[in-house]
Amino acid sequence: MQKLKDRKPLLVKLFAVILLALLCCNLPSLLFWPLCLKQDRDIPPNTEVIVSACKSPVVQGVPGGEVLFVREGDTDKMYLLDLRTGKKRDVPNNPLLLDHGVFLSSELVWLEGSLVGPDNPNYRPNYILDLTDGQRYELLDLTWPPRLEGGKFDPKYYAYFQSAEQTFIHHTKNKLIALSPDFRQHPERNVIFSQFSLASVRSAEGGELLEQLMKDLGVDYEVVDFSRYDANVPSPTGRYIVHYDGIYISGTNMQVVTRGMGHYFKGWYYDESGVVVQDAEHDLLLLPGGGGIFNIPSPILKLRLPAP
């Protein structure tokens, strides 16, 4: 009996140590829900939650603004969120979609290929993924056809652009994609083209040579890059344009949103009533030296624009 009494303080201390260890290990889980719900509540003025922070969402804007591509980190679910109805639409289970997918529209995704040519064993073609049926269509890469004397690009290939029904430019990746009017029946007319094929000087701003070429050829095009910090991304009808320091009425210096956009901007709303935004994650705990652990995600928000 005396031995048990002597051991009691030791057992209490041991139990306290175990309890403290369990508490420390589960601290992020215990704090996550109240903190992520707080993230949903403490949002800037003129915003509303589209996807809760508690789902650990990652979002990619889609041209046209009718849908958003959402991946929920807590469940690994991927879907298109219809911004008109709030309904979710499944997407094909394609391994390239998450890491190499760039949305051209609510139905078409560019699956980015490798940067090396067809002679390299690591070559991976560029594809268009059709979300309506999951079919893939390989793009002819005009980076690799034979060149003229002096390494110049052969202008005969411009016919692909001039006959295209849809043309897309991605500034950050310096790429242009042109799809023929019947691209599903004749995929051999669908091409991808690099800005670096136009000139040996590679100091031009992302996509500016591609835009100038399309203007010179009289080809209409759409910018599909929402990722650049300083991108000038027009709204669906062209009424507004987003820049790194805010949102402007196109063709003027009149700001309708003065908050800096930067990486905060994710995409336009289909009716131009707002933009889709997401703030950076927040660190729950900081380590010595400035590193962070136990990140608290931010919700996906709609930032409403002032009424015209």
Question: What labels describe this entry?
Answer:
alpha+beta, 2 domains, 4 helices
Description:
The chain is an alpha+beta fold and 308 residues long. The protein has 2 domains: 19-61 and 225-308, no CATH class; 105-223, no CATH class. Helix content is 20%, strand content 30%. The chain contains 4 helices and 23 strands. Strand 6 (101-103) and strand 7 (108-111) form a beta hairpin. It is globular, with a radius of gyration of 25 Å.
| Average pLDDT taken over every residue | 82
> What does the overall shape look like?
globular
- Low-pLDDT runs of 5+ residues are none
Largest β-sheet summary: 5 strands, mixed
Domains (count): 2
Count every beta strand, where a strand is a DSSP E run of 2 or more residues.
23
Query: What value does the Rg take, in angstroms?
Result: 25 Å
**What is the chain-wise order of helices and strands?**
HEEEEEHEEEEEHEEEHEEEEEEEEEE
Share of β-strand residues: 25-35%
Q: Order of strands side by side in the largest beta sheet?
A: 10-13-12-11-14
Q: Briefly note the structural class of the backbone.
A: alpha+beta
Question: Terminal Cα separation, in Å?
Answer: 84 Å
Number of helical runs?
4
Helix content: 10-25%
